[in-house]
């Protein structure tokens, strides 16, 4: 599944370092689209251009404070992901909570970075997340999986499964989707891949692949969906050089 992607990754690596302003413009493009699409999947009504304006510090009329904060918070969360990658920090449960704290900052401060104490359900999904008293046990299993079985996996498979397992646990009251996509890109970026965009127009396929993973433990559709987006990001970078 990954042979063609590995070839493109090697081709991109061979061209490193890329020109400074090329890197800067690609970063700005991908991070804007990442923020817009990740928020739009969760129901944020800001358009791509409105998201860009909010990131520039301008308020958009007719939009809620929450929608503005979701953009600003996501930008800060991406900066935190970049910081982790730059410092080569080991993956930890503390990082997950910090990412979530940034996602919900000023929106649901009482629940930011805190595992839920109540049952939740995923709209439109067959899968039901575990009961609150089982969350820590599931998160412990996730961390054990990551530190052992996951290390022998291809980075794309590891990142996709980290996202899927985490969002299946749904450890927080809100913000699980955004946090899971940040974790996915964190894992990819640590392995030298550009961030990927799960596009809002592919939301149905995205949700269906996740629900299949959660109900049958068959992650192939979701891994393939992620791999397609990894290739798309690599193609963007290769087209620039």
Automatic annotation (TrEMBL):
This is Fic/DOC family protein. InterPro entries: Fido, Fido-like_dom_sf, Fido_containing. The record marks 42 as: Important for autoinhibition of adenylyltransferase activity. It comes from the Bacteria. Keywords: ATP-binding, Nucleotide-binding. The active site is at 170. One of its GO terms (molecular function) is ATP binding. It comes from Fontibacillus panacisegetis. It holds the Pfam family Fic.
